[in-house]
Amino acid sequence: MEQPRQPAGRPDGGQYGALPPRPEADLDFRAAAPAAWPALTFEDVDWRLSPELEGVVPAYQVARLEARPYQSAVPARIADLDPLVALPATSIEAVSAAAVEISAFDREASALPVPMPTVLLRTESASSSQIEHLTANSRNLAVAALGETAGQNAELVADNASAMTRALDSDGPVTRDQILEIHRVLMERSDPDIAGQFRREPVWIGSPNLSPHGADFIAPRWERIDVCVDDLAAFAARTDVNGLVQAAIVHAQFETIHPFADGNGRTGRAIVHTLLRDAGYTQHATVPISSGLLGDVDGYFRALSAYRDGDPAPIVDTFAASTLRAVANGRTLAAQTSSIHEQWKARIKARSDSGAWRLADHLFAQPVVNSTHVARFLGSSPQGAFNAINTLVEAGVLTQSSRDRRNQLWQAKDVLDVMDEFAARAQRRVR
Predict the structure, then answer these.
(1) Residue spans per domain, the chain
(2) Could you tell me which CATH class the domain 41-79+86-330 is placed in?
(3) How far apart (Å, rounded) are the C-alpha atoms in residues 67 and 19?
(4) Hey, what CATH topology would domain 350-416 get?
């Protein structure tokens, strides 16, 4: 769960070699027993009112709060822990089944006649954003992706898609610099002052607005972030951990560290896809795991809490179950988009190598277009763009959705409908 700004192995499970030495941390972590996963410990931190609130909050209230320290989380060092020791056999079995489905779905998506990887990435970014109550329908998201005005939520979701793209473009395991870059892309438009920078202020999850006292979870003090992120990256670089287990634990540890003032949830779920790609589970497409999490958001948050209490099994189980739900939903979407493609074949009266057909295939990735976008995509003149658009309008593939002469928009309603249906299926609660 993201915290709004506050005022103050591999698939075969093989062993690939020893970890490189890691420098000692500047700050202490709790030592863990070899066969256990460590719970958080806590430290007292003095509270000081944020300077911008001085003179706004009554002096008596300030004195009362500053007289009481709050308890901030201290994450354990995880780089050298053995996660499999702390997992029951049922979790390992669930992960194995999910891993098979991820790899199979990745192959299936790459073989489709439509740009399914882009479709899936957009659905994943929308689902991840929706976990944070940022909702946008498929049309508004497509309009925002054009750079047109479509509402703040749609712009935030479009930025999340860009951040996920950056995460998938990263080579190798997750690093500190990659995390900062993903966050920069995510937040640069909405909050440039914090984009790509670790926080230097306390953050917490829960209802208090003025101070962290009484919050549900208070993230580590900002002075610990560098050490915690370095430890996280060391765990992410291991090659002797099952890839899905590794992704679930890295995600839970990242959300526990909460290194940013805002955007932690969306950044943390983007990192999952970097890990799955690096582990070899996905090579072509994005498995929309966030759409699986949407079916039981409360369970997802409970699993994160259990992880902080020293039990990693619930978050691993949650990722395995969410993967299966996401793959099932993704296969339905793939079948629907393939069916649309087949229907268009009978309706589009143009050569298969024409600009009209190139545009038709592109509509699955960008289902709302304007003439400028089409001309740029086709590498054609403005007239060539209008010719391709008119061919698809005559075929009933495109309909004009904006009659503003200065910025006419056309949409592929068939594609938008199935993407909205995907989102509706993802929201159905798990029974």
Answers:
(1) 41-79+86-330, 350-416
(2) mainly alpha
(3) 45
(4) Arc Repressor Mutant, subunit A (1.10.10)
The half-sphere exposure of 374 on its side-chain side, counting CA atoms within 13 A, is 31
Residue list, annotated binding site: 262-269
Can you give the pLDDT at residue 22?
29
Q: Which two tokens stand for residue 157?
A: 């979701």
Active site residues: 258
| pLDDT per residue as tens digits for the range 173-232 | 899 999 999 999 999 999 999 999 999 999 999 876 777 888 899 999 999 999 999 999
Q: Both tokens of residue 380?
A: 């054609």
pLDDT at position 30 is 40
CA distance 77 to 28: 9
Binding-site sequence positions for ATP:
262-269
DSSP H stretches of helix in 261-381: 264-279, 289-293, 297-308, 313-347, 355-362, 371-378
Q: Is 429 left (phi over 0), alpha (psi -120 to 50) or beta?
A: beta
Report the pLDDT value the prediction gives residue 28, as an integer from 0 to 100.
42
Spatial CB neighbours of 78, under 8 Å, sequence gap ≥ 6: 38, 231, 232, 235, 249, 253
pTM of the full structure = 0.86
